[in-house]
Amino acid sequence: MGIEDIPGGAEGAYTVTVAEEHVPPHLRGTNAEVVSTPDLVRFMELACFGAIEPYLAPDFTSVGTVVHLKHLAGTPTGMRLEARARLVERDRRRFVFEAEIFDEEEKVAEGRHERFAVPRERSNEKLAGKIAKVRGRA
Considering the entire predicted model, what is its pTM? Predict the structure, then answer.
């Protein structure tokens, strides 16, 4: 399998039950204990990754590069969420998804997410240089 084998319209999903760890610290212990927007972004990313991961060659993975999310409604702890993603556009190693997230009652988020397929073991010279520079300051 390779990047070329990923079908247009590929779909992925991610399901999770909202736990205290998904609630922003400033809302814990209030009457507004709901899932955080950053966690919804993470769930969306996991659904998008799941749409293409089965098709990627073993030496490839994907990284998120663009996120656009509208948080439409709150979801309290204990409620189940499902993020659903569909591949709507691709250009070589770039993949664009439309995503929706639903709780047990309603749609709570919608957005678009872009991922880029990259070799797992490729040397990332830019990142290695950044790490060396920061560690050199210590």
Answer: 0.86
Amino acid identity for residue 32 in this structure: A
**What one-character-per-residue DSSP string does the chain give?**
--GGGPPTT-EEEEEEE--GGGS-GGGTTSTT-B--HHHHHHHHHHHHHHHHGGGS-TTEEEEEEEEEEEE-S--BTT-EEEEEEEEEEEETTEEEEEEEEE-SSSEEEEEEEEEEEEESS---HHHHHHHHHHHHH-
97 near 118, Cβ under 8 Å?
Answer: no
- What are the chain's domains? 3-137 (3.10.129.10)
The one-digit pLDDT tens for each residue of the chain (138 residues) are 566 678 889 999 999 999 988 887 777 777 677 899 999 999 999 999 999 999 998 888 999 999 999 999 999 999 999 999 999 999 999 999 999 999 999 999 999 999 999 988 765 677 778 888 888 876
